[in-house]
Design goal:
With about 210 residues, the protein is of the alpha/beta class. The chain has a domain of about 90 residues: Rossmann fold (3-Layer(aba) Sandwich). The protein is built from 6 helices and 8 strands; from the N terminus they run βββαββαβαααβαβ. Strands 2-1-4-5 form a 4-stranded antiparallel beta sheet, covered by helices on one side. α3 packs parallel to α5. It binds adenosine-5'-triphosphate (ATP) and magnesium ion. Adenosine-5'-triphosphate (ATP) binds next to β1, β2 and α1. The site of adenosine-5'-triphosphate (ATP) has 12 residues, from β1, β2 and α1.
Length: about 210
C-alpha cells in the first residue's frame, strides 16, 4: 500500500472582482500524479504559486480537487475525513495559534482536541521540544512573545503530539536558522527511522 497515491489531480480557483467584474481563474494543479511509499520522505520543490500548498491542503482533507483521485493512508478522498485526520500531522506555513496563550496552553488545547491524556501529552510535548532545541523555559511564554522560528518549533510539536503515521509539512524549515533547521531535519530523519513515519514536505531549499 502507498501512503499517498494521487492521480491526474486538477484544481482551479475562480474568483470575481466585485459584483460584476470579470471572472478570474487560476489553475493551481493540472494533472498531478505521483505516489509516496510508506516510510518514505518525499520533498516537493517548486516556484511560488506552483500549487504546493494547494496539494498539501487537498492531502490534508481541507480542500477538494475538481478532478482526479486521491488516496491517503489507504483512504480514498472524499470520505472518512474525521478518521483520517487523526492519522495525519500537518504543519502549515502560517500556523494558527492563540497568541496570548502560552506554548503549553496551545499544545494542551490541541492535545484535548485529539483526546490525548493531558499529562502524557505534556511530557510528549516537552520531549519533542527538547529535541528541536527549544529552551524549556519558553514553554510557559505566550506565543506572541516568541520568534517566528520558535513558533515554527511549537507548530511542529503540535503536529506530532498524537504520533501520526503521516506528516504533511508545508515549508517546515523556512525561517529557521541553520542550526535549528538541522535539528528539525535530524528529528524528522529519526522519526522515520524509529517509527517508519511517512513524511511529505514542500521546501524552497535546493540542498
Ligand atoms: N484560496 C485560493 N483562492 C484563489 N486562488 C488560490 C487560492 N489558493 C491558492 N490559489 C492560487 O493557486 C496557485 C497555487 O498556489 P499555492 O499556494 O498552492 O502555491 P505554492 O506552490 O504553495 O506557492 P509558495 O511557494 O508561494 O508557497 C496560485 O496561483 C494561487 O494564487
Ligand atoms: Mg505554499
Amino acid at each position: 500500500m502507498y501512503a499517498i497515491e494521487v492521480s491526474n489531480l486538477q484544481k482551479t480557483f475562480s474568483s470575481r472582482q466585485g459584483w460584476f467584474g470579470p471572472q478570474k481563474t487560476e489553475r493551481a494543479l493540472d494533472g498531478v500524479s505521483f505516489h509516496v511509499d510508506e516510510g518514505e520522505t518525499y520533498a516537493l520543490l517548486g516556484p511560488n504559486g506552483s500549487g504546493k500548498s494547494t496539494l498539501i491542503r487537498i492531502l490534508a482533507t481541507l480542500l477538494l480537487p475538481d478532478a482526479g483521485s486521491v488516496r491517503v493512508l489507504g483512504n480514498p478522498l472524499p470520505g472518512g475525513e474525521a478518521e483520517l485526520r487523526r492519522r495525519i500531522g500537518r504543519v502549515s506555513v502560517d500556523a494558527a495559534f492563540y497568541k496570548k496563550l502560552s506554548a503549553r496552553e496551545n499544545l494542551l488545547y490541541a492535545a484535548q482536541l485529539y483526546r490525548l491524556e493531558p499529562r502524557r501529552a505534556e511530557r510528549t510535548a516537552l520531549a519533542i521540544l527538547e529535541r528541536l532545541g527549544l529552551d524549556q523555559r519558553r514553554f510557559y511564554d505566550p506565543l506572541e512573545e516568541m520568534s517566528r522560528g520558535m513558533q515554527q518549533k511549537i507548530a511542529i510539536t503540535r503536529a506530532l503530539l498524537h504520533d501520526p503515521p503521516l506528516l504533511l509539512l508545508d515549508e517546515p524549515t523556512t525561517g529557521l536558522d541553520p542550526a535549528s533547521k538541522r535539528q528539525v531535519q535530524l528529528f524528522l530523519e529519526e522519526l522515520r527511522a524509529e517509527r517508519g513515519t511517512t513524511i511529505f514536505l514542500t521546501t524552497h531549499d535546493m540542498a
